[in-house]
Amino acid sequence: MTQSTPTSKPKRVFIQVYGCQANKSDAERLTAMYLDNGFTIAEKWEDCEELVLVTCSVRKRAEDRVRAFLHKIMSYYQESEQRPPKVVFSGCMLHHGVKKLRKMLPMVDEFMPTNKMAFAKRALRKDKNHAFVPISTGCNSFCTFCIVPFARGREASRPLQDILDEVAELAKNGYTEITLLGQNVNSWGLERMGISARKMMLRGDITREDLPNNQSQYLDFDGAPPFVKLLQAVSAFEPIKIIRFLSSNPWDFHDELIAEIARNPKIDRFIHLPVQSGSNSVLHRMNRGYTREDYLTVVRKLRAAIPEVVLGTDLIVGFPGETDAEFQETVALAQEVNWHVGFVNIYSPRPGTLAEKLYPDDIPHTVKKERWNILDQIINKDHLGERPKVV
């Protein structure tokens, strides 16, 4: 970032955001940081002196969109013969490493890891009623398909007082709704320091069975889980009326958390509970840490304790080796659970992950697309009734 001086005309920054709510939250904190350094906010990328991209790398398509945008703006400035803005690259595509990215994207001038600013004190939000509040960054889980541990590093919980200070400020400024953000909010305060996913993948002869189970990466606890205590502390702010959280992992959706949601009217009744697959053999290859039966147990407990609960999920179709029979197990799970909304994703290998290293991407795209259509129809098209508000 190039700072503006008091005597110079303030530089303008435009921040382009891709991907999930964590990236949106990072962008809000980046915006505040730029303002604090004397910049103003450009309404269009054509009008900026500094262009920041907060990138997504969860799927190849997300990376393709970033590359296409960069080539578009470079072509624009070449044709107009105007001086292009300084391009700052951030977000999850940094998992490729700066050396590789410089070859891939020579038009980028600076690389800025966002995980270092995820807990920044100040954020500039357009929404004056709802706010994202990050409570952790990174991930300790070893799901074989996931790039997050490479892009954002080991899981780190934000200190309790920092979170409460931000919520207090939001309450004072008239906010009534917040969403607590983390790759797995359930594990807040319980991460265990150990080998990184990146170091694990560097082992030349690694196999699926070498991976630690996800539960082993977190500490045990006495009494209520720390995340439940955090929900209780946040709920104590009277102006805050609605509390949401994203995202949860089925293997540590504790009974105490279910009980807290049931007794606490401030916690939103929409629960996003990613399953990824309904097949135990696929879940094993993914190293998700639970079975189909485990997932159904959590769903039944939620619906017994909170009859009005609304469930959403994430699913991956076309994971390496997924047979027709394995896919039909996911179809059957969708019909049994009856999620209110489902984000169905077509598998694409992420460079550096264990899935990319061990499993050939052997499902034809036409088959992946057909399976995507089937699940999307069952979950998102055939479902009757009012849909939840998904922030």
Could you give a short description of this structure?
This protein has helices at residues 21-36, 60-80, 98-104, 148-151, 160-172, 197-201, 226-235, 255-263, 280-286, 292-305, 324-337, 354-358, 365-381, and strands spanning 12-17, 40-41, 50-55, 86-91, 110-112, 130-134, 136-137, 156-157, 177-181, 242-246, 270-272, 310-317, 341-346. Helix content is 36%, strand content 15%.
What this model shows, in words?
The structure is a single chain. The chain is α/β, with parallel strands linked by helices and about 400 residues long. The chain has two domains: about 10-115, 3-Layer(aba) Sandwich (Rossmann fold); about 125-380, pyruvate-formate lyase- activating enzyme (Alpha-Beta Horseshoe), CATH 3.80.30. It has helices at about 20-35, 60-80, 100-105, 150, 160-170, 195-200, 225-235, 255-265, 280-285, 290-305, 325-335, 355-360, 365-380, and strands spanning about 10-15, 40, 50-55, 85-90, 110, 130-135, 135, 155, 175-180, 240-245, 270, 310-315, 340-345. The strands form four sheets. It has a five-stranded parallel sheet, with helices on both faces. The protein has a three-stranded parallel sheet with strand order 6-9-10, sandwiched between helices. Strand 1, helix 1 (about 20-35) and strand 2 (about 40) form a beta-alpha-beta unit. The longest helix is centred in the first third of the chain and has 21 residues, at about 60-80. It is globular, with a radius of gyration of 22 Å. The two termini are about 30 Å apart. The model is unreliable at about 385-390 (pLDDT under 50).
